[in-house]
Structure formats: C-alpha cells, structure tokens
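Late entry, written up from scratch paper. The run itself happened at the end of the previous shift, but nothing got recorded in the book at the time, so transcribing now.
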Amino acid sequence: MGCHEQTFRFMGGLDDTNNFARHASDQQSEQTGSSDSILDAARDQESLASDCESGVSGPSCDDSPTLSNGLIRLLEGDRIHDLIKRRFLLCLGLLGSQTKVLSIHRNGFSTLTGKARLQTFQIFSMATQRKHGGDANVKYAWYGTDRDEICSIIEHGFGLPAQLKNNGLYGRGIYFSPDDSPMDCLRNSIVDEHGVHHLLLCRVVLGKPEVVRPGSDQSHPSSEDFDSGVDNFSSPKKYIIWSTHMNTHILPEFIISFKAPPRLTGFIRIPDSSKKPTSPWMPFPALISALSKYLPQSSMRLISKYHRDHQEKKISRQEMIQRVRKIAGDKLLIAVIKSFRNKD
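Output as recorded:
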C-alpha cells in the first residue's frame, strides 16, 4: 500500500465539514470501538512513516526553506493536504484569499526517538481515556513560533522557552489555539528570512481541563481531577498544556508553511496594547544587548536582521518595532526599557 493510501486510512473518513478536533475522538470509535484503537492508530502511523521513507515525498520544501529531516511532504491533491489547507484558509477569514500556502509536511516519526514519542503520546492518551471514562478529549490545535524552534520541536520535542508564549499570562505551559482559530496563534509566528510563516498543527490531550485565570503562575494541574487548562470553558481561545505534560500530551503532526499579506500584522492582537513600548530614550543596540539576556539566539538573529533592514530602509521604523514586539512581547520590552531608564 502506498504512502497516500495509508495516509487516507490513518486519517480516514474525515469529512470536509468536520473539524480536526472532532476527528480524533470519532476515529477511535470508527476503528475498533475500544481504548486500544489509539494504539492501532499509532501502529498505522509508524508503518506509514517507514513505508514513506523512500517514497516520492521528501524532507524539504520546494517553495519554502528546508525545515527538518524526518518530514514527509503532502502533495496537492492529497486528501489530508487539501483538507488542512482548505480549513486553514477558511479560518483566516477575509485574509484567506490573500494567503498562499506553500507546503504542508507531516511528521514521519521515522527515528527511534520519534517512534518513542509517538508511542508515549498514545499511551498517555489511553491512560487519560481510561481516567475519564472513555474520553481523552484529544483536540487538534495550532502552535506558532519560528522555523528554528519548529525544527527543534520535531527533532527534540518541546522545551519550555526562555520567554513564555503570551508572556506566561496563563502560567508555565505551552499555549495552543483551537484548530478553528489559527489567527489567534499567529501572534507567535515569526516570519523567516524568506518572508514565510510556519505553524505546527498538533494533537493535544486535554482530558478534563480547568479554567486558568490571567496572571496565574500554575505549572501543573491543580488536582488529580484535571489534566490541562483553558482560558474559557464555553469558547476557549487557549489550550494550556502544562510544562509537566508537554512531552506526553502533545503530538506535533503537521507543519504548514505560508506567505500572508503584509497587513496580517494589523490583525494580530498584542497584549497590553495600551502600553506600546517605544525606545526614543534607549538606543536600539542597547535594547538588542539587553534582550539577548532573555531571548534565544534564533530570536535575536531575527531582531538584528530587522534592525539592519530598517537601517537599509527596507522596512519602516514602525514595522521594525512591531516585529520586535511580536518576538519579545510587550511585558519583557517594558521591563527592559524601564530598567534602562532607571540606570540614568
């Protein structure tokens, strides 16, 4: 059986009107009707990855930069490729028609470590399912970051970033956006040197979530009854997988690479928008030096690049500031600028 035939079987029967989140639980009942169906899906995925290693798909992108080894490109016409693309663009609203999807890759889980991570996720999914009477509450969700971190996640798994996404507003964890709200996580998606955005589409085990209030310093479930966090029960915009669960309850499955219109930035929400940091009293080189103490090298390379682009008049000062705010977050920028002013 070929790569695409097996892909169809694994994701099987996904109707165009269904969302990714409903599919995870629907598939369990379709396959075997038992808790072992999760592990059946894992075995299908492992077989798929092995069979596709020598297939027509490869680990690199034609239209966008190489991401990482172990990725299998889904081609136009592939059912899953077209479903992800169609739903992603639809959920971008008016911007969807102006956004160009360059490629979609699937994590092949082809290495021993990758297979172990896949099995770990399936085991914890099954344990959560049993804990809550047959429903692990597995959802598909988006994660936005830069290309380097995506490569690191695929190769090494999730690691808690130095500067927490969303400034750690909901505690110490990895924050996701529901599969029908990709726009909400684009705030953390950093354009690479080719002008390309990359987002991860992951499966996450929510189990029984609890509401987490802004300003929380939580890093694990508040009791044995809970497994994850959400910002709102009725219409969540944030799924929070705690740092203690980040490599057992998250499975990064797909990467979508795309180019969006420049005004996309205008639709991205920035926290503390009433406090728009500017740095007329702090030289930008000094700001770069201060930020380097808190941000990873990949982020600092981008900040330095945007500074050079501004000096070479490729981008405006306002555009440079907006991009730096997206990378560093307002909370860190305000703290750094205040610290600099207090030294004077």
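Confidence is low (pLDDT under 50) at residues 1-66, 162-167, 265-280.
(Scratch paper discarded after transcription.)
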